[in-house]
Every structure is written in structure tokens, then in C-alpha cells.
Request: fold
Amino acid sequence: MKRGITIGALALYALAAKLPAVASDGQLIAAGYSAPGPMEVAPGQVLTLFFRGIGRMPDGSLRIGQAQTVPLPEILAGLSASIHQLPQTTPFPLPLLSVRQHNECEEASGEPKCLLTALRVQIPTELTPVVAKLTVRSDGEASRTFLIRPVRDDAHVLTACDLTWDTNPASSCGRLAFHADGTPVNEARPARRGETIVIYAYGLGPTAPRVPAGTAAPAGVEVVDGVARQLAVRFLPFRNASPSLARYFEAEPVGTVGELAFAGLTAGQVGLYQVNVKVPESVETPILCGGDTRSNVLAKVSSARGIENLPLCVEP
Reply:
């Protein structure tokens, strides 16, 4: 008996070759050696929530929105979110700053599984350190619930990417410090020893008095004593430190501690904190900024969650 492919088999093979591959709904959510735990957030923290599976607007357009007023809206581009935490019977709505959606699939697909939806929100200031549940609503339809774990503070020093809401993981997102007049500390305008500089942050947690989420802060609102006691900014000579090193811990932090003049909310802003700190007179600057030297001092911002490095240029 002659072995070979029959005409019928060839036709079937050709048909199969033309059929599009069917992708499963499986999505990679994490990698490592243990399952991902609940997302940790601090009361009043501004951060971005990322979702897959949320569809386009009813008219077929992508969901794009930007808050234009304060207090912030609770619905933007057809989306809203809330957190339910016992013993509270009514969920806390999340004020929304921005909504953005784009296609992640290689092909031009409009399916919800191909869309990454980003919601920039402020976490309610009423949350306590008890596990809670987050729900997002798309055009009034509720999602499944997502576990979150509120923590007292979750410091995040402002970066260049935060200013433009650049969430691309490949972007270079250096942390920033500013002079009192709002201009950045850099090679062109280095800090002076003895000068009080400003470091902005999200997620420094509860304040006294508490400012309702979604509203602009009045002047003089400070972080609570428990947060302030664990805040410190240490300065030491260091050439060209990494501007985006991940948060870390040190058993015995080194460096000269700067005097904290203020730690609290930035007046007129929503969820933005600032730490005003004096650059120590004793900090050494043996190398000048310029040329290949982008920074000559390292400011180490310490909180309960670890240390964040912030390279600086300081005058000799």
C-alpha cells in the first residue's frame, strides 16, 4: 500500500493553516517562589492600578480621561473603584486622577484581554491596617474583588516619570529634589550646604489633621508622629549614584542626618507630601559636578518601608 498524503488531507491541511490561532485567556501575573500577596497601600496614597480585561468604551474608543476639578471625580471614562473594609458597611469610593488604556497584543485586537487599563487613584484616608477588598466598575458593571493590605505608610519619593505619568518599565525614572523656589536641584543649580531642599513623595500615610481623599490639602498639615519618627534623610559623598535603585534596607544606615524642617502634605495638592530637609554643613563634596560627574552627594531617604537613594549635586 502506497503511503502518502491524499488530496483530501492536503485540503484539510491548507484549511487549518488559514485558521487563526486561538489564544487562551491565561495571563502572567507574577514570577518568583511564592504566590503574589495582596497589594499594599497607605491611606491617602496616590498610585496607579493596572487592570487587564476591561473593555473599551461603549462607542468602541479607548478609555482615556483626566480629572479637571478638585475635589477629584469618582467616575472617569466610565470607570469607578471602591474599597470595602469592615466594620464599615458602605464602601469607600476612590477619587480618580487619570484613566488610560492601550492595546498590549501584537495584533490589532480590540478584545478586553488585550487591553491594559491604568487608573491613577488616591487611596481613601480612612483606611485602617486591616485587609480590605477593592472593586472596579466598568460602565456600572462590577468586577471581581481584589484583596489589598493597608499599611501605615508606603513612601515613594517623586521621580521624573511621576511628573508625566510615564509607566513604561523601560523608562529611566530618577528621583528628584527641589530648591525652595520649585526649581530642580541639578548640575546647573546645585544645592548649597546649609540650604533647606524639598523632596516630594507619595504614600507617607496618616496626617494630623486628616485631609479627605480627593481634596486639596491646606497649609501646615503634618504627618503623624509615628511616621515622622521613622523619617530621616542622610547625606554622604558619593559620585554618580544610581538615580533609580530600588528601595532597600540597611542594618546600620550611614551618612550625616539632615535636619527635618517639615514633613507633611503639600498645600494645594492632592495626596502629595513633601519633606523639607537641611543639607548638612559638614557634608563633604570632594568632587565637583560637571562632565562625567552627574552627582557628588547621595541623599538616603529612610522610612518604615526602607531606603530610597536620591543623587544630588551640592556646591563645594
